[in-house]
Design a protein that fits this description.
Blueprint (H helix, E strand, L loop, with lengths): L6 E6 L9 H8 L7 E7 L13 H6 L4 E6 L7 H8 L8 E4 L4 E3 L3 H8 L5 E5 L14 E4 L5 H15 L3 H11 L4 E5 L7 E4 L5 H6 L1 H19 L21 E3 L2 E3 L4 H25 L7 H32 L15 E5 L8 H10 L4 E5 L1 H11 L2 H9 L3 H15 L1 E4 L4 E2 L12 E5 L6 E8 L4 H16 L8 H14 L6 E3 L8 E9 L15 E6 L2 E5 L8
Parallel strand pairs: 1-2, 1-4, 2-3, 6-8, 12-13, 12-14, 16-19
Antiparallel strand pairs: 4-7, 5-9, 6-7, 10-11, 14-17, 15-21, 16-17, 18-19, 19-20, 20-21
Pfam families: Gly_transf_sug (PF04488)
GO molecular function: mannosyltransferase activity
GO cellular component, one term: membrane
Length: about 550
Amino acid sequence: MVNKNKLIISLTTIPTRINEIEPVLESLLNQTIKADMIYINIPKKYSRFSECAKVPDFITNKYNDRVKIFYLEKDYGPATKFIGSLLNPDISDKDIILITDDDIEKTKLWTTKLLNCYAHTKVCCFEERKIGKEIIWGYLGFCFRKDLFDLTDMLMFFNQIKTNCYLVDDHWLTGYCHYKKIKIDNIHLDKSTEINKKLIIGDDSLARLTGADTRRHTSNKCRKDILDNFQTEFPFWCCLGCCKKGKRIVEKFSDNRITTCNNITYILHFIALFIVLFIILIILLKRLLPNQKYSRIFKISIIIVSSFFIFKKINKDSTNKNNEQFFNIVPKAIVPKVIIPKVIIQTYYIKERIPEKVYKNIKEFAPEYTHIVFDDSECIRFFKKYFNRNIIDTFNNLKGAHKADLFRYCYLYKFGGIYLDIKTELIIPLKDVFTDNYTYSVLSIIKNTVYQGVIATPPNNPLFLKLIKFMINLVEEDSHISPYIIFTIDYYNRTKEYCEKELSIGINTNKENDFDFYFFKEICTKNKKDCKDGLDRYKLCCYIYDGDRKVFKSRYSDFPW
């Protein structure tokens, strides 16, 4: 561990537990290697509970200097403890983060053992059963450095699989690491290296909330979603709850095979076939060797050898049957779904100037979406991570809104999602606007141009790669770009080339690939009565229409800020 790096412990809790976590906090504060800060990550509003978590006095008074609350706008389920640590601006990229659950006291050597395993390119995690490596066991704890994970990329991953993975954070975090080829180091635990001191609240929160059978199926559905969307297979365990008293039972997932603890059926089959085989062998031996004496050892040897092959066959059949019943195995040759991620991106050079009404507007009309705003410095960090120096030079040579043009093209090409100009106002639920997986944009009031204030697309759309190349070439030739609308003209012309016809409102079929286009229409008037909050800076009232339906207001009347 490098001295300059802070050591952070991160956990989350729920309203029904927050008053019971004092023993857990005490165990974390009494570690041999002490953390610089412990963060309890709490959503401002829970998806699973109607009430909010009221912070008890013992946290604010007793632990005020070493335990802090970090509030999140959204509830990410059990993964709130992990995503919260990535969102927290007080945790730097080089800090080492230790993740733990809120219902298990730790022994004093918990941080020591994790840090002994830690390497900055890895995720380090305990595992207590030798059932396969590179698995995250959240309740045992794991550690990593913050800059190992890209928040935007991870939220995109989570949003595509959260329906079935919301409550099984161990599984989707393991899946994400395998998808991104992030190595997970597992420390094997035995009785001499125990790190969980005492269970405070319950052995399995998810099993308690949903039932063990539901947990098993949820885990399998989560893994299937990751297979479907990201072509990623990975080993993981599942808490079946098929033994009494909440004992954790392991499912072993390897090479698309599942072995469960409930083997009663195939054991009974084995016994029945064993008896039948025994009778058949005795009859055959008596008929084949009627006048000879054969030893008991000979008979037993034949029975054992035959039984081995029968047992092996039945075990294989049982495993395959479990696969069909619980897992719905997906072939390895999967074509990933081309979908628009539920992520809204916006840009503004000084985020502090953005009015609160912008955030409230998106929260009101797009609560299902992740909302990310980038300033210029964050745009450059994005380029450094995913693009070459040429892109950064181009960005630095652009001015004003053209910087936002380049960033939206690059982000949408890499990740897909929804770009909205910071001045765009939502007026109906966003989920009712982008109902399919087209490349959405707007035909502008200026003829043969595209209004780029609203764009939605799946990732890896070749259109945006062409738009990026055009910007780079243009800047290399002339840094003083004129006219201002040159990029909106290029957007229109590139799209027209794909469709091999003039563009029209609604669906436009792409003749070259599967990324069909859908265009809304911008309509502007000079009538003050059409805008409840007045005309904009251009003395216009502009709305974006889908047919006869208003779906966006082009600009807030008081923009720019």
